[in-house]
Structures are given as C-alpha cells and as structure tokens.
Design goal:
Blueprint: H1 6-17, E1 36-38, E2 42-45, E3 52-56, E4 59-61, H2 65-85, H3 92-97, H4 110-132, E5 141-146, H5 152-159, E6 162-168, E7 186-189, E8 202-207, H6 217-230, E9 231-239, H7 247-259
Length: 267
C-alpha cells in the first residue's frame, strides 16, 4: 500500500473534527499506551515521536511496524476468500440496509443471524438508554466497535448518535474497513485482540465478532481487559456473537464478564 498525501489526511481529519468529538483522544499508542496527536500527515505518539502511524485510504493504521505485514496479510487473505466465495460487495444503499437485507453470496443464515443478534442488542441499548434517562434523539456518547468488518454496525451506531471508532485488522476495500468510505465513523486498522483504546473514555465498547475473534482463552482475557479498561463509569460492554458454538460457551463468557466486575443484563 502507498501512503496517502497529507491532503488526504486533512480531508479525513476535517470530516470528523467538524462533528466535534476529538477521535484521537479515544485512542492510544499501541506500543506504549500514550495519547496521540496529529502530525504532518500522520498521527504521532505524544511520549515518543518515533511512534508514528499513517492514514492510508482514509484508514488510520494504528499498528506497530512489526505487526503491519501480518495484519495486511490477514486482510488480503480475507478479501481473497470472500471473492472466491462469491460474497457481494455492498454499494451505498445496500450497506445502509445491512443486516436486515443481506448481501448475495454469503452463507444462507449469515445475514438472518446477524439481523436477529443486532435486534437483540438494540433492545438492550434501548433499555440502557431508558435506565439512564437519556433522550431518545441526541448525542449518545462514544463507542468502539472491535472486529468491525465492513463497519455496517459502526455506521448504525454513528447514525444513532454515538461518536464511533471502528477497529479491525481487515482494511480491504471490498469486505473490510475500506467499504462505504463516505460514512462518518472513524476507521482504525489495529490488532483487535489488543485494541489501542484510551482508558475510561467510552460509553459503549462492542466486540462484534465475539471477543475480538479470539483464537484462545488468553486472547479473550486480553481483549476483555482492554475493553473493560476503556469504559467510563456506568459504561456498557457488549459481546455480540451471531453464531455461538454452544450454550456452555455462552455461560462461560457470562461468568468471565461477571468475574471482570460487570453486571450482566438479562431482559
């Protein structure tokens, strides 16, 4: 990939700065956890200006140099697999209708399962809004979607009033974060197991693909710890898995969330 020019950075930067929230304050350097600031066409760590992160094609690549090749390979493999499977890339209107109206080429129950899981999640978020006495229309706070894929759920949260950061290793233009580039949520390519989130700034942290598409229990623990640390007091952590393997796995996850000090809601 080639770097975008600083003018591309300014175009992306102006788009999110006009909305008010300072998205960079919601993120941290993946190498030392320090705050970030804008540099000359890139993003710079405030504690070590040798830690610099470029914008490429509207996506902030918030990755240490030693991880970039691995995450790019993961993204390219995902794009190739999706192409071989015949997954259709959404245009703007199709993107806005996801997941209620699915895309062609995906497995038979893929989008219906996601629609059902999303509807259930929205019931919980509405219950939380009512419990907190929040207005039905207006700013809802800050949200992070980890394992965001194409970003359709980040788009929905953004439209619902959250200033939203979408984080994933998948940065491709067909089935990764590069899809539907005119959406307002902020795109970040990063390690979803160790998401570079600032501490105590989010009202909502959502793991869209289970706990960061975790490969094992250690990954789950690492991702969960980052998510919990990023929450404000009374913040909400959501683990959305449209394809749970078993009831036992769901119960084990609930126990892990409770052990982390979270109150598990039951509607």
């Amino acid at each position: 990939m080639s770097l975008d020019s600083s003018s591309s950075f300014d175009a992306a930067g102006d788009a999110f700065h006009r909305r008010g929230p300072q998205y960079l304050r919601m993120l941290s350097c993946p190498l030392d956890g320090a705050p970030l600031t804008r540099g000359n066409g890139d993003v710079v760590c405030l504690e070590d200006d040798g830690h610099r992160y470029p914008f490429e094609h509207g996506i902030l690549r918030l990755i240490g140099a030693d991880q970039r090749a691995a995450l790019d390979a993961q993204s390219e493999a995902h794009e190739a697999q999706a192409s071989r499977s015949g997954w259709r890339t959404p245009d703007e209107e199709a993107f806005k209708r996801l997941p209620q109206t699915g895309l062609g080429g995906f497995p038979e129950l893929y989008w219906p399962q996601y629609a059902a899981a999303t509807a259930m999640m929205w019931r919980f978020l509405e219950a939380i809004r009512v419990e907190n006495g929040a207005l039905p229309v207006g700013p809802m706070g800050e949200a992070a979607v980890i394992g965001a894929g194409m970003g359709w759920l980040a788009y929905a949260l953004d439209v619902a009033g959250y200033a939203t950061v979408a984080i994933d290793a998948l940065a491709g233009p067909q089935h990764g974060l590069g899809v539907f580039p005119i959406a307002r949520f902020f795109r970040v390519q990063a390690d979803p197991v160790h998401p570079p989130l600032a501490r105590e700034v989010f009202d909502l942290v959502l793991f869209q693909e289970g706990l960061a598409r975790s490969r094992d229990e250690a990954d789950e623990e690492a991702a969960l710890a980052r998510g919990v640390a990023a929450l404000k007091p009374r913040g909400v952590l959501v683990v959305m898995d449209a394809f749970p393997e078993s009831l036992a796995r769901i119960e084990a996850l609930q126990a892990r969330l409770e052990a982390a000090g979270l109150r598990v809601m039951d509607l």
